[in-house]
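User: Okay, second chain of the day. Same drill as before: sequence in, structure tokens out.
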Amino acid sequence: MKEILLSTCGRKEWKHFMTREQLIMMASIGVYMAAVLVIGIFYSKRSKTTSDFYLGGRKLSPLVAAMSAEASDMSSWLLMGLPGVAYVSGLADAGWTAIGLAVGTYFNWLIVAKRLRRYTMVAKNSITLPDFFSNRFHDKSKILMSVSALVILVFFVPYTASGFAACGKLFHNLLGIDYKIAMIVSALVVVLYTAIGGFLAESISDLIQGILMSFALVIIMVFGISSAGGIDGVIANAEKMPGFLSMFETFNSKTGTASPYGFITIISTCAWGLGYFGMPHVLLRFMAIRKENELKHSRRIAMVWVVISLIAAVFIGIIGSAAIKGLGDPETIFIELAKKLGGQGFILLLFAGVILAGVLAATMSTSDSQLLVASSGISQNFFKGILHKNASDKLIMWISRITIIIIAIISVIIALDENSSIFSIVSFAWAGFGAAFGPVVLFSLFWKRTTLYGALAGMLSGGVVIFIWKFLIKPIGGIFNIYELLPAFIVAALMIVIVSLLNKEPSKEIQDEFDLVASAKPID
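Assistant: Same drill. Structure tokens below.
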């Protein structure tokens, strides 16, 4: 921003004015924000029931299901967190994380999607993940529903906060706007269109956001290569940093040396892929597709988008280290490259504006999903499921909207610290969902002998071990310095098996439902 020194009553004050470039970029972002609000208003007329509000009436097309699932999954972490890791430490950490995510995405679509879509129909047409758990095990006490709703709140609030923090960083670095003000305004826009339009508005917005993110990643990667002096310039820069381009070593920016990236670390990092089996906002897209036989088409679309996006994100960090030196916050490398692109002429400035709208899109695509899922945990699963079983759809939808606002406020408070790491926050929340829900989802879908108490033991142990490993065991270092998702996932799976085998087998009715889902009989 240009700073002009003004004299007022004998005092000197600094007043900030936006440059022409900043105004154009801000206009692009403003148009995008207005567009998602219009989408929210349009789809508000179609969200007349709780099924519509939380699951879109199971009417998603293959394209919308695929793109909204992946856009809501990747978030600002894809455009800021992952490139930031690659910028600092090189290829290994970011690369193995990307591989784990790509493999996890594929198997989630391949083995979970169809089975979950079928089972949620059989289990009393469940419209949320806690609903499914409760109905799958005929949980009359609703204890499984209550615990799963609590897990959603515990891990989604910081996850949503990371998205709001990314918005604040975007506007602060781009326009010099106060971080807190920018973060709050962005959160307000997300809250408005999510609370108004529900799942359909969120899913259509995510489709647009996914397209924007793809465009932004490819353009910035190509521009970054040009800025770095071509591929030769990128390689020459990387060769100055030991281990920077190795998949089996990692560069230590503090010491300027390479550290081994061993087998255990590789397995630990690839364990990110396990998280997909427990991500409520991704699993909802499987449940919401209009026909189960369209999931194969969705899987192909999703995988093409994911592979291209992850490769581009990792290489933006590698390329960025050659194009822009000495960044104070590595997670802003994408933004800095976009700003540099905007200084190359008017046409490229317009491109930069659209690209930066893509960063905002990445953030909003996840934040809206998280808010909706978290609010459903309170309104649909806790309020209606436990406190007021005869509550009307209209009341539930109002409770949900109020809950969205409350959760957003808490997330904003958490995000007030602008120095927090987006990658670290997302990593912890991802592990929490992966361990608490992932094993329960898999065993619920594929092991008939799973019992209610086995599922409950798995859910509780997975969530608890995340905290224990993260804060007590991992700091010991050595062989214990692994991603907390891996040990927690294993413990949860073991607890499900052990406790289920100690219980009497499920009722005939539960087993018959399982057999129906496992059969080839059409359920749509």
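The longest helix spans residues 179-227.

User: Thanks, on to the next one.
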